[in-house]
Amino acid sequence: MIELEDVSDLVNPVVIAAFEGWNDAADAASDVIDHLIDVWGARTVGAIDPEDFYDFQMNRPVVSTGLDGHRSLTWPGTQIAIASPPDLDRDVILVRGLEPNMRWRQFCAEILAACDDLGGELVITLGALLSDTPHTRPIPVTGTATEPDLVDRLRLEHSTYEGPTGILGVFQDACTRLDIPAVSYWAAVPHYVAQPPCPKATLALIGQLEELLEVTIPLGDLPDESQAWERGVDELASEEEEIADYVRALEETRDTAELPEASGEAIAREFERYLKRRQAD
């Protein structure tokens, strides 16, 4: 069981979770949590005991030296933090860690029990996968939800995926079994630039959070980093003719497809987010 610090009653808290590993191509999803912890000034209130869930030969502890010269050991694990965003009328519970190596059902049960103790009312999981999408176009984000009213309100879909799954799939299944409303967003990262980071995909996931929570999230340096990332991939593609040809083929396929993000409704939502951000600035 996760021991939580004393926390005053939170206001209608929403849970946002991401885990490094199979579910997190280019670290795009876990980078969202890192960004939110930073811009919302979140503080850690609990952590899962890594001894029960991680194989330390696969996820080794890290030794580091502080500015004071003292050596410290950091164990792999999963932490829970809380934040009170100034522009949001509810608190946020942030879950950030590594996909566990064992006891996945117990892992999910302990995380969700801790979130329940904090009053969590809605769970949002973030993931990223490698896809045949061009880096020069908007990053596609797909969303699913566990309850019909969420599907309708957020214009999402019921998941039809069949096959192997990661901790996010197990986590969302645990939410369903416990009757906890849950939403999952997945960003598609170009597979030919799979190395982290991918700030463009991180921004795409943040955009979905803004729409769901109806809040403007400070972006900091992410837009500049996203543009620099895209320029860097452009340079890489220009140096390799085969890559350049492949990117052009992906662009042609993407531009001729009937894409949700190219619809009038999607463009209107994006413009509305832009106006809100201008007003916030």
From TrEMBL:
Q: Which InterPro entries match?
A: Proteasome_assmbl_chaperone_2, PSMG2_sf, Rv2714-like
SUPFAM superfamilies assigned to the protein according to its UniProt record, in alphabetical order: Cgl1923-like
| Top-level lineage group | Bacteria
> Per the UniProt record, which residue ranges are transmembrane?
none
- Pfam families the record matches: PAC2
What name goes with this protein?
Answer: PAC2 family protein
